[in-house]
UniProtKB/TrEMBL annotation:
One matching Pfam family: BKACE
Keywords carried by this UniProt record: Metal-binding, Transferase, Zinc
Cofactor dependency: Zn(2+)
Natural source organism: Paeniglutamicibacter cryotolerans
Membrane-spanning parts: none
MF terms (GO), sorted A to Z: 3-keto-5-aminohexanoate cleavage activity; metal ion binding
InterPro entries: Aldolase_TIM, BKACE
Keyword Transferase among record annotations: yes
The name this protein goes by in its record: Uncharacterized protein (DUF849 family)
Length: 309
């Protein structure tokens, strides 16, 4: 029998802006509620970013994270995963602030630099809630999301070795799998590894099933039996790719960070609605979903008692 499917939910992220959906969690209270609801719906891992509660702009401040991390931890048993991606244009040090402050069980790590183009979204909207939104989107026309080998080494040593935090290794292209293999070869990270394959971001690998199949094949060659893999796809590809991952024995990620929609032309009313939808698909295919305890065991996490919140 296949292993239970680990569902990750990313409630807010640092890509979509407040104008795009009234359902996007912005304030600490909204992020806490969205995360708790997603965990209750079946998400074993909650992947978290923070935002300025007044403007909705991505904000790496530990002071904001402190307003929702304890609430989520007290209300759920979900694994809390703090992003080190932060927001596009942030410095490496800013992106690591919250994770260094709170020493989570998991943190995300983008395993390579890439052009991260979200500027095409700008043409879909005209009436903006905040001035920063169109400027932010347009800035990605000339932006490289920087994750050099020096950045990767710094992060896995600063956070992984010093805090015992394990990583959600976000791989946006084939070369990122090889970057991760290089980190492993240096002896800087230990298995089991959690590889999150990302599809459909302009600048990364396209949302084509052939790409998913090939990346899965290469990951098997590089990491053998010492890894868990998961799939997320941006926008309209979200549920299709999550379903494909389930069929292939992988895990899934959903959430308003990755897609604002529940179906064609239908904004998702909540993160929990996406979790419920993919859970229904997973279970209809004859699979079960993993509990947080099962996710912790399979990913070799240090446990919720060993964090700073």
């Amino acid at each position: 029998m296949s292993k239970p499917v680990i569902i990750t939910c990313a409630p807010t992220g640092g890509i979509h802006t407040p104008t795009m959906s009234a359902h996007l969690p912005i304030t600490p209270d909204e992020i806490a509620v969205a995360s708790i609801e997603a965990a209750e719906a079946g998400a074993a891992i909650i992947h978290l970013h923070a935002r300025d509660p007044e403007t909705g702009k991505p904000d790496p401040s530990p002071e904001i994270f402190a307003q929702f991390l304890p609430r989520i931890a007290q209300a759920t048993d979900a694994v809390i995963n703090i992003s080190t991606g932060g927001g596009l244009g942030m410095t490496r040090e800013d992106r690591l602030k919250a994770a260094n402050a709170f020493s989570p069980e998991m943190a995300s790590l983008n395993v390579g630099s890439l052009n991260f183009g979200i500027f095409p979204m700008k043409k879909k909207y005209t009436d903006w809630k905040h001035p920063w939104e169109p400027e932010f989107l347009e800035s990605t026309r000339d932006l490289v999301f920087k994750n050099t080998f020096a950045d990767l080494e710094y992060t896995v040593k600063e956070l992984g070795q010093a805090h015992g935090t394990k990583f959600e290794f976000e791989c946006y292209d084939l070369g990122h799998l090889y970057n991760l293999a290089w980190l492993i070869d240096q002896g800087w990270v230990k298995g089991p590894f959690f590889v999150q394959m990302v599809f459909g971001v302009l600048g990364g690998v396209g949302a084509d099933v052939d790409n998913l199949m090939h990346m899965h094949t290469i990951a098997d060659k590089l990491f053998g039996d010492d890894y868990e893999w998961s799939v997320l796809a941006a926008g309209r590809h979200q549920m299709n790719f999550a379903t494909q991952s389930t069929l292939l024995g992988g895990n899934v990620r959903v959430g308003l960070e990755d897609s604002l929609y529940l179906g064609p032309g239908q904004l998702a009313p909540s993160n929990a609605s996406q979790v419920k939808k993919i859970r229904t698909i997973i279970e209809s295919l004859g699979h079960t979903i993993a509990t947080p305890a099962e996710a912790r065991q399979r990913l070799g996490l240090k446990g919720a008692d060993n964090v700073n919140f």
